[in-house]
Amino acid sequence: MSSRKADLRLDFCSHAAARYAIEHWYYTRTIPVGALVKIGVWESGTFEGVVLFGKGASNNLGKPYALEHFEVCELVRVALRRHAMPVSRVLGIALRMLHKQCPGLKLVVTFADAEHGHHGGIYQATNWIFLGTTARAENYVIHGRETHGVAARKILARYPKDGSNTVTRLRRYIDADARVVLSSTKYRYVFPFDDELRRRLLPFALPYPKRGESKDSVAPGSPPGDDGASPISPLHAC
Amino acid sequence: MNGSKSPAPKSRVRVCNERYEVVAIERLRPHPKNPRRGDVGAIAKSIAKNGFYGAVVAQTSTGHILAGNHRFEAAKREGATELPVVWVDVDDKTARRILLADNKTNDEAGYDDMVLARTLEECRNDDDFTGTGYTEADFEALMEKLSDKFEPASGDEQGDLDRVPSVTCPECGHVFAKS
User: Fold this and answer.
1) Phi, psi of A112, deg, nearest 5
2) Same domain (yes/no): A77, A149
3) How buried is residue A207: exposed, middle or buried, by Cβ count under 10 Å (0-12/13-18/19+)?
4) Could you read off the pLDDT of A172-189 as tens digits, one per residue?
5) Are both A151 and A52 inside the same structural domain?
6) DSSP bridge partners of B59
7) Which of A46, A53, A102 sits opposite B148 (nearest CB)?
8) Which pTM value belongs to this model?
């Protein structure tokens, strides 16, 4: 065990490696589109998974924190298999690598899917700030796969706008069986790279949720809408 | 075209005396000495999906196919009545050598598994593996084989998550940071 620990290596990895890890060791089995920083994990020379950072589905990811889009990113996947090293250690190193690769970033946001039994234990172990839960939003099931509302509207962008709503257009142009579903509620965690930003965010921190705790017992961290697009007022006032 | 262009350097590769034609399939004959046994079914699926591309290579004097015997069989199975052919005017000795070399040089080839995996992934994202000769099981086996071979990649292959969007002035070309 200890020798395996000594052999831990994190380095950038290829898209093929990231895709393999996601498809085999991550519950959604889907890799996000768009720009990604892909940090691979090797133990004793064997590829054990990936930590993925991306821009997330929302263009307003930085808005609640008074940050520009290029100052914030999302931790989108942690997909590991039989790793010996604690995930928190892996995540800590991955965050340092991310900051070195993208020094302009000030904040990383992530969401733990409460409805899939994830309470964010690894974020708690790496000192992320918990900001509450997200509101439910409308997602769409397209060809049997749940698709984020923003992604669904991007898919529709190349089709004529006829004044009808998203699901009607999806049924017309993409999939006759498309339907609306409410997204699951997620726990929101943030990791500031900047001490000043951490200081400003800490007053909004909520006690960490516990495994198995009802998500309804945790105060919502953002108003309904686009994954917390509405600003946290005091941050904007600073 | 001012006529001052220098002539292309003389090629050091001898090109066989050949000509291209689309002919009735009856004019072509599988080579009786072809030792190769291919997967005609897989080629037929490729033809059904992608169409028949390229041409078979046949000896002018005999009509024997020197390269493309299995493609010929597959096309026939798919109902082809005519096929593109490149007739090569060679003697029987040369014809035999071409027949063997075309197969053997292919046998000597290998794969860059990472490139193969990426290309298969693209096919799967576009559609599926139909017409590629590969199956989902082949892909899974390849990925399993690769999983222990994934090597670190360059930082240049990573996305620019902190890239400040910019706008270029169409008049002067000055690049402004977009706020």
Assistant:
1) -105, 130
2) no
3) exposed
4) 999 999 999 987 788 999
5) no
6) B88
7) A46
8) 0.58
CATH number at residue A46: 3.40.630.30
Is the CB of residue B122 less than 8 Å away from at least one CB of chain A?
no
Residue A222 predicted with pLDDT over 80:
no
CA–CA distance, A181 with A27 (Å, rounded to integer) = 19
Q: What is the ipTM of this complex?
A: 0.71
Q: A160: domain range?
A: 137-183
Q: Answer yes or no: do A16 and B152 touch at CB < 8 A.
A: no
Contact list in A for residue B153 (CB cut-off 8 A) is: 11-14, 17, 38, 40
A66 and A47, same structural domain? Answer: yes
d(CA B18, CA B14): 12
Cross-chain Cβ contact A17/B150 below 8 Å: yes
Q: Which residues have C-beta within 8 Å of that of residue B172, sequence separation ≥ 6?
A: none
- Looking at the fold, whether A44 and A92 belong to one and the same domain comes out as yes
**Residues B96, B73: Cα–Cα separation, whole Å:** 20
Q: Is the pLDDT of residue B72 over 80?
A: yes
Q: CA of B162, closest CA in chain A: separation in Å?
A: 4
Same domain, residue pair A67 and A174: no
Question: B171 at the A interface (CB within 8 A)?
Answer: no
Q: Which residues of B touch A101 (CB under 8 A)?
A: 155, 158
**Domain co-membership, A110 together with A198:** yes
Considering only CB atoms, B143 lies closest to which of A20, A34, A69, namely A20
Residue B83, by phi and psi: left (phi above 0), alpha (psi -120 to 50) or beta? Answer: beta
The SS3 of residue B21 is strand
